[in-house]
Each structure stands twice: as structure tokens, then as C-alpha cells.
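Appendix C: a fully annotated inverse folding record. The material below is reproduced so that readers can follow the format used throughout the book. The structure is listed first as C-alpha cells, followed by the designed sequence.
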């Protein structure tokens, strides 16, 4: 069979995101450095040109104002006096030429003696007009930057001109001397930029696991599709206790905004149920823990998130690493905690079916007890008839029937809730079989459809089960149940003769898994039962009070609502469903 290529496997010849960013950043650093170096060189060239122009102008004006130059120009042989002087100035001022000329351009001085007596090449109009000037011109020594200053006599007439210049070749050599410094700075910038890019690429390689952009895009598409296609809720909490990601199912189960609409926020600020928020914030591991919201029963599992040990060569990109990778620093001995991943399953309907099964079990046990009791009574009646005591047999049979009918009529005439009536009849038989004296009273009228029948049965059934378990170990073995409907309220009171409850730890009793009994009774896990009672009471907008007076007293107060179109029927489903 041909092997199927995994979509997350790294194709040959591709580069990771970190490598690509490193190469791009290195190229960008090199380009920016080259541009800055060229700009710096051009700026240096311009500044050197300006500085040279200012320097030759200063020298030219200084020579033009020198009395020796003015007197030498007026002498019979100006070149004889000025040529040695100009050569000396050339050497001392580090310029390429000092040319002193007559107003008609005739040179008195020049670095090349052959040029003496010849005409000066360049502009002299401004100098003849009595103003100094700077220009770039091509003369006998080549292109140069030169300054020309006029020489005045005592009457202010221009009697000569002084030209001082530096060739562009000399200027270029000066600028070239600064080029190594610019190149060294550029090289240092490239090296430092490359080191920074390399460090950043190492970080990116670590956090992206060496994947390339195309692979990351594919992985994101796969993970996002998987996230929103799950029928279970999925919640991701980071190491700071912030909810960073969840899917649509989790949003529905926890009452959160639509997936993607909420920015990362602390778990404590989201208004989650207390136990759920505590689990998410703690970061601890959990396996199939049951948690209650206002109207749901959630089974939550939570594991710590670990960074996979392998990169693009991994063939299982959807694998959640079972162990947390150790910290990078050797000898640290601590796990690198990245956050937690929690899955949520809705067991509300399953628990409802379980509750209905428990109710059917209770009723079947009651029927079995009644059948057993009926057989005993029938045997007694038959024996009494055989003994000729027909009248006592008839009175015995009628008394038993009247007691059962009284209990049924009392609830039908007062509460008139068939599900509650059936439950109480079954509980009465169950109490009788367990040897517990159950006293039930009812008063008032319960409007049809004013309460959800399933929640009402959940509250009453669980409270009676707890009362039976508590009373079974007491000396009196008694349970009292009272139902009172008046002033738009239904008050259910269940008391027992048991050891009572610790009212200082009620929150622990009503928390999931808590119990008011020292040991499990015959009915088993009542920790969930008490939590379900509080949940049902909260759904019905009621209140639950607990007292301890020679035994536990649970009082539930539920508001009665008039039946309206669309309200819940006794079966618990909205109209029209």
C-alpha cells in the first residue's frame, strides 16, 4: 500500500519561517547599511568640498591683504619676489597652487615655472569688480576648487588678484582616507544586525517549531477546522490564567460570547461557575470531573499543554504531548508550563435520563414493597375468614385501602401534581419497607404548569433520599415532609431525626461531591444529589435554607408562575415541542 503524505510534513527544499525571516532581515540590514554608507560618503564629500572652498577663500583673502604682496606686485619684477613666497605658502597651507596675477590675467606665480607670464585660466570678473569668488574650474593642473580675491592699492583700485586652489584629485584622496572608517562602521552594523536577526530567528524557530509559512497556514486551517467541528467543548487557558481560545460548543456550554469574539481575558472575570473557574485557573490535571452550571451538568477533563518535541518532521501534528517538556536551562528541574487544554462534555440529558431511571427504580421498589405487603395482608384476610372472623377481616382490608386512598386524595386535592403525587406514594412505600416513619402533609393549591415537574421531582426526591439515609441510623427513624402552596409560593420542608448537618460548612455540603452523611447510604452517591437540588432550585428562582435542630431541616421556597403559552408543561418540555 502506498504511504499517504501527511499534510503537515515539511516538503523538501522549503525553508522554515525563522530561516526566511533571518535571510530577509540580513538582506534588509545590508541594504540599509549600504544606503546609509553611501549617504554618509556623499555627505562627507559635500562637507569636504565646502570646507575646502572656505579654506582656500580664507587663504586667498589673507594673501590679498598682505602688504608684501601689494608692494611686490608694484615692483619692476613681481615674479622674482612673489614666486618663492607662493611656493612656500603652497607647502605650508597644503594647497595645490597659489597664483598671483595682474588684472590682465598675466601670472606672476605658479607651481609650474613654465606657466609664469602666461594667462590665468578661470573667471576673474567678480575679482576685477572688487569681490572675492569661489568656483570649480578646469585649469592647467586639472579640475580644482579655487578662490580668487582682489588685491587693492592705497586708492582702492584692483592692482592684482590672488587665486588659491585645491585640485579635485587631492580632494578625492582626502575623502578616500575617510572611506575605511565608513566601511568599518557599515561592516559593524551588518554584523550586529545579522547577530540580532539570528537571535530573532532562533526565537522564531523555537516558537514555530521550525515550520514554514505554508505549513503554518495549513496547520492553522486544520486546527481551526478541527476546533470548530468538535462536538465537545474545548477551552485553552494560558500560563497567566487567561482564557485565550475556545470553540463554539464551549461557548454554548459556558455561556460565553461566540468563539473568536472574546479577546484573552482572566478566567476570574468571565463570570464562569465557581468550580469551573477554579479548575481553569488552577491549571491542575483533571479527568472526567463533574461540574454544575446553572442548568447544565458538565464533565470536564483538563491536561497541561506541552510544546511538541519535534518540528516539521513530525508525522502527527494533532498529537497533544502527554508530558510537559522540561525547561531549557539544565538543572532547573521545573517543567515549562504553557497553559492547559480542557474538554467539556454535556451530561445534562444523560443525568436527566439517569434521574428518570432512578425514579422508575424507586417506583418499582415501591410496587415490589406494596406487592409484598399486599400479599401479607391478603394472606391475613384469608386466614381470618377461614377462622370465621369475617367482620374483622373486612375492617382490616377497608382500613388499609382507606389509608392509601387518604394519602392519594390529600395530594391530589391539595397539590394536584401527578408526578409529585406518584413520587410521594412511592417514597411512602419505600420508607415503610425501610422501617422509617414518613409523615407527609400538604396544603394549598398548586396551579397546573406553574413549576417544572422534572425540577420539582429532583428537589423532592433527593431531599427525601437524604432524609431517609440520615433517619435510618437514628433512634426515632422518622422523616417529615410538608408541602404548602400559598401567596404564589410553594414551600417544601423536609426534616429527619438524623444527626443533623454542620451549618458552618454548607458550601462544602452543596459543592459537587459533598455530602451531609458520615457514610454512603443505601442509595449511594448523594453528593451529586445535593448539588442537583441547589441547581434545580436556582433554575426555578427559588431559595434553599438549611437548619439543624435535632436533625436536618431543608426548606425550599419556590415562586409559582401562572401558566402562559410556551411555558413548561408538567412533563418538563415547552409547549409545541
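Designed amino acids, in order:
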Amino acid at each position: 500500500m502506498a504511504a499517504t503524505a501527511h499534510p503537515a510534513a515539511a516538503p523538501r527544499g522549503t525553508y522554515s519561517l525563522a530561516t526566511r525571516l533571518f535571510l530577509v532581515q540580513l538582506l534588509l540590514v545590508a541594504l540599509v547599511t549600504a544606503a546609509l554608507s553611501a549617504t554618509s560618503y556623499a555627505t562627507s564629500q559635500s562637507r569636504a568640498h565646502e570646507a575646502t572652498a572656505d579654506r582656500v577663500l580664507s587663504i586667498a583673502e589673507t594673501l590679498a591683504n598682505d602688504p608684501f604682496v601689494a608692494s611686490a606686485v608694484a615692483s619692476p619684477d613681481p615674479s622674482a619676489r612673489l614666486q618663492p613666497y607662493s611656493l612656500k605658502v603652497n607647502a605650508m597651507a597644503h594647497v595645490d597652487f597659489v597664483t598671483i596675477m595682474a588684472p590682465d590675467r598675466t601670472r606672476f606665480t605658479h607651481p609650474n615655472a613654465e606657466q609664469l607670464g602666461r594667462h590665468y585660466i578661470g573667471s576673474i570678473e567678480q575679482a576685477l569688480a572688487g569681490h572675492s569668488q569661489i568656483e570649480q574650474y578646469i585649469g592647467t593642473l586639472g579640475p580644482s576648487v579655487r578662490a580668487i580675491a582682489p588685491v587693492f592699492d592705497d586708492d582702492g583700485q584692483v592692482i592684482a588678484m590672488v587665486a588659491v586652489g585645491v585640485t579635485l584629485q587631492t580632494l578625492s584622496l582626502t575623502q578616500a582616507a575617510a572611506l575605511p572608517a565608513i566601511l568599518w562602521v557599515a561592516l559593524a552594523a551588518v554584523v550586529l544586525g545579522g547577530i540580532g536577526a539570528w537571535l530573532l530567528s532562533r526565537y522564531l524557530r523555537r516558537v514555530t517549531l521550525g515550520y514554514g509559512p505554508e505549513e503554518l497556514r495549513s496547520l492553522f486551517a486544520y486546527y481551526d477546522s478541527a476546533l470548530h467541528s468538535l462536538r465537545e467543548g474545548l477551552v485553552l487557558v494560558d500560563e497567566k490564567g487567561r482564557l485565550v481560545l475556545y470553540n463554539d460548543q464551549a461557548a454554548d456550554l459556558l455561556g460565553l460570547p461566540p468563539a473568536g469574539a472574546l479577546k484573552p481575558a482572566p478566567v476570574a472575570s468571565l463570570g464562569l461557575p465557581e468550580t469551573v473557574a477554579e479548575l481553569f485557573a488552577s491549571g491542575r490535571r483533571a479527568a472526567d470531573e463533574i461540574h454544575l452550571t446553572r442548568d447544565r451538568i458538565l464533565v470536564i477533563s483538563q491536561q497541561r499543554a506541552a510544546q511538541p518535541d519535534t518540528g516539521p518532521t513530525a508525522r502527527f501534528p494533532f498529537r497533544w504531548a502527554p508530558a510537559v517538556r522540561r525547561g531549557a536551562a539544565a538543572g532547573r528541574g521545573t517543567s515549562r508550563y504553557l497553559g492547559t487544554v480542557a474538554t467539556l462534555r454535556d451530561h445534562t440529558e444523560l443525568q436527566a435520563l439517569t434521574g428518570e431511571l432512578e425514579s422508575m427504580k424507586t417506583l418499582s421498589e415501591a410496587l415490589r414493597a406494596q406487592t409484598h405487603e399486599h400479599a401479607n395482608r391478603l394472606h391475613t384476610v384469608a386466614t381470618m375468614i377461614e377462622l370465621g372472623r369475617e367482620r374483622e377481616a373486612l375492617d382490616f382490608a377497608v382500613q388499609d385501602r382507606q389509608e392509601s386512598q387518604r394519602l392519594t386524595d390529600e395530594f391530589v386535592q391539595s397539590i394536584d401534581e401527578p408526578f409529585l403525587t406518584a413520587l410521594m406514594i412511592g417514597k411512602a412505600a419505600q420508607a415503610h419497607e425501610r422501617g422509617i416513619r414518613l409523615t407527609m402533609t400538604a396544603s394549598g393549591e398548586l396551579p397546573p404548569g406553574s413549576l417544572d415537574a422534572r425540577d420539582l421531582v429532583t428537589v423532592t426526591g433527593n431531599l427525601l433520599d437524604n432524609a431517609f439515609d440520615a433517619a435510618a441510623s437514628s433512634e426515632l427513624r422518622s422523616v417529615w415532609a410538608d408541602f404548602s402552596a400559598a401567596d404564589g409560593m410553594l414551600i417544601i420542608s423536609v426534616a429527619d431525626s438524623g444527626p443533623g448537618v454542620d451549618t458552618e460548612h454548607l458550601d462544602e455540603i452543596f459543592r459537587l461531591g459533598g455530602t451531609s452523611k458520615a457514610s454512603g447510604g443505601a442509595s449511594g452517591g448523594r453528593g451529586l444529589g445535593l448539588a442537583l437540588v441547589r441547581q434545580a432550585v436556582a433554575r426555578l428562582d427559588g431559595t434553599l435554607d438549611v437548619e439543624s435542630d435535632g436533625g436536618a431541616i431543608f426548606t425550599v421556597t419556590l415562586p409559582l408562575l401562572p401558566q402562559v403559552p410556551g411555558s413548561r408543561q408538567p412533563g418538563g418540555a415547552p409547549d409545541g415541542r
